Amino acid sequence: MNQKSIMLSLSALLYGSISALACTGISLTAADGSYIQARTVEAAAGELDSRYVVIPRGEKFTAYTPLGENGLKFEARYGVVGLSVVNVHFITEGINEKGLSAGLFFFPHYGGYAEYDQRYASTTIGDLQVVEWLLSTCATIEEAKHAIREVRVVALEQSSVVHWRIGEPSGRQVVMEIVGGRVNFYENTVGVLTNSPGFMWHLTNLNNYVNLFPGNAPPQTLGMQKLQPMGGNSGFLGLPGDATPPSRFVRAAFYRATAPQLATGEATVMQCFHLLNNFDVPIGIEHPAGKAPAIPSATQWTVATDLTARKIYYKTMYNNTIRCIDLMTIDFDRVKYGSFPLDQQKVQPVEYIKIG
Fold first, then answer.
1. How many domains are contained in the chain?
2. Going edge to edge, which strands form the sheet with 25-29?
3. At residue 312, does pLDDT exceed 50?
4. Is 63 exposed, middle or buried (0-12, 13-18, 19+ CB in 10 A)?
5. 1 Cβ partners below 8 Å, 6+ apart?
6. Taking the CA of residue 111 as centre, how many other CA atoms within 13 Å lie in the half-sphere pointing to its CB?
7. pLDDT tens for residues 179-221?
8. Residue 240 lies in a domain
9. Is there a contact between 335 and 58 (Cβ–Cβ < 8 Å)?
């Protein structure tokens, strides 16, 4: 894809739809120590060209800059499987054979990179290609933190500012944000990420919900009036239910914190899918009445990655069947670079039950 086509695709994705780029990420650890990171990917402007990408060891890349494919040159040290949007190099969520996982989340109005300077093209990489680069060349969070300080990250399109989530099998996760051209890392102890504002703002905002707790609120008396819950989960009364990034962050943080720990990584992967079902964004709420595009959902795909077992699972807006790619079965010295559509057929399989 040439630079003009990339920019046209990005503009189609981003124009008038920044508020609709509403991704929600969570993470959970199983009792057996398996560490799972999961997230949704939303876009309400229209269907994303989403694919899964397989990168072998030794694959060579040249990064995009605003002037074309003339940036940082790098070679894959590690095999990678990732899910991309718009362009196969724009991996939105992925994992490498060492268990390092990374993903990008849109971060409009609050992030800010250095301006592109052609003199530094050889050390410059477009923001949407950072995940591909990190997973291809780094094995740990510490390696990623060191590597990012050796390059210049720039925007390929003015509205495409993002921040990143990076995790490793130990269960450690960091959020990386670039603000005013400065790279900042934050330890993510709540295991949640959405979009704007910045990560530390979201942590502060959680204090507004200190009154929430799982279960039911006790009956009370207001003067002579007896008060009692009208249904279950009254302890969460006041939990925000809209699709804005602050509300999704709060809701995800409480859902994650109250989720029971399950025994195995596979069970926890399925638990993540159940939790993230609560964050599916209906396409109709993102547009004025009658203006929504004819796609099933603003939530276009959901992915859960087992960093311990090196497996990546996904489902899509067309097909809720969960599919899995096991990196342990891939010979990254022999496999060829390739990208493939997430759905071979855009239809939901239905199992018919025969009676009699």
1. 1
2. 192-193, 25-29, 35-42, 299-306, 311-316, 323-326
3. yes
4. buried
5. 9, 87
6. 26
7. 999 999 999 999 999 999 999 999 999 999 999 999 999 999 9
8. no
9. no
CA atoms within 13 A on the CB side of 166: 27
Token couple for 98? 């060492």
In a domain, 279, yes or no: yes
Element (H, E) at 41: strand 35-42
* Encoded amino acid at 166, one letter: I
**In-domain check, residue 208:** no
**Domain range for 87:** 3-196+260-341
User: What tokens does 254 get?
Assistant: 């409480």
CB 100 within 8 A of CB 166: yes
How far apart, in whole angstroms, are the C-alpha atoms of residue 285 and residue 264?
Answer: 36
Residues, the chain: 356
* Rounded Cα distance, 113 and 65, in Å: 13
What pLDDT shows up at residue 9? Answer: 56
CA atoms lying within 13 Å on the CB side of residue 138: 23
Residue 9: both structure tokens together:
């695709």
| Residue 334 C-alpha from the chain's centroid | 29
> Residue 332 is inside which H or E element, if any?
none
Average pLDDT, the chain: 93
pLDDT in tens, 345-354: 999 999 999 9
Whether 153 is covered by a domain: the verdict is yes
**CA gap 172, 235 in Å, rounded:** 30
Residue 191 sits in a domain whose CATH number is: 3.60.60.10
Beta bridge mates, 187: 174
| pLDDT at residue 5 greater than cutoff 60 | no
Q: Give the whole-angstrom CA distance, residue 137 versus residue 243.
A: 35
Which SS3 state, helix, strand or coil, does residue 245 take? helix
Backbone phi, psi, residue 264, to 5°: -125, 165
